[in-house]
Amino acid sequence: MSTEAVARIRLEVVPSADLLTRLPAAFDTTGSVSVTCLPHHGPARTVAASVHLASLGYHTVPHLAARSITGEAELHSLLLQLQNAGVSELFIVAGDRRTPAGPYSWSGELLEAVNAYSPDFSIGIAGYPEGHPQLSQEQLSSSLLTKAPLASSMVTQMCFSAEAISRYLRSIRTSGIELPVWVGVPGPVSIRKLVSLGARLGVGRSLKLARGTGMAGALWRRDDFLSYDSGRLIREVHQELAGDPLFAGFHVYTFNDLGSMPGLLDDLRTLQPSAILAPGSTSIPLFPAKI
């Protein structure tokens, strides 16, 4: 795969037991990989997987979930392990754990703690083009304005509408936020899985639109294996955001369904060349071509 294709995409993966063997078969080790932190896994598993992936050559971006970290001692231990492995970028969210395991109840508190430990980490924060199922728009806006000055980039929640994503970028720019934005899109995963996740993730409006392009028929046939056409959405987003200086690239939610990823990565080669951010870059390019 060309370096240019790698520069325009980041895969989000779950730190499963077989990830270290399956991922290199689907995605070149020069690429950028974001590693989730699920409540039942905990941050230690995320960090361990991130350290291993970094040793293979990946630009690795571990998630740190505020509500899953027990305290300053654990946080510093995790950050030291990542620094020793050469990991320089993090993605900070609140996490889905109902009760905080320690003093960090939301992502802003953890963001401040990480910056106090070391200002050398680049830190990504979450953006929600279609809102959040548990938070008001006012809460989201306030939180984003608080965190943005301490962050280096943003990753948007999975969305199925290029128009909604474009509208969101215009909205945050109007509020004075100029962070590079990785646009979150679904990978080529089962349509049934996407539908089951839709309500929890708060992507109902664009998911309904996506059903109108073949998803409804798949559900009617009860086809568990038919995959959503991620390539089509990526092309629409690329066309919609051409010329937008905030567009850093695509953040693909894979749900570890990696078998079809090579085909999606090949689709990226058909896009016009562009000056999208390379993995790890913190500068904002010209683009000619969970709180």
Automatic annotation (TrEMBL):
Stored SUPFAM superfamilies: FAD-linked oxidoreductase
Catalyses which reaction(s): (6S)-5-methyl-5,6,7,8-tetrahydrofolate + NAD(+) = (6R)-5,10-methylene-5,6,7,8-tetrahydrofolate + NADH + H(+)
Cofactors, names only: FAD
Keywords: FAD, Flavoprotein, Oxidoreductase
GO molecular function: methylenetetrahydrofolate reductase [NAD(P)H] activity
Superkingdom, natural source: Bacteria
Biochemical pathway: One-carbon metabolism; tetrahydrofolate interconversion
Pfam families, sorted: MTHFR
Family: Belongs to the methylenetetrahydrofolate reductase family.
Protein name, UniProt field: Methylenetetrahydrofolate reductase
Natural source organism: Pseudarthrobacter humi
Organism placement in taxonomy: Bacteria, Bacillati, Actinomycetota, Actinomycetes, Micrococcales
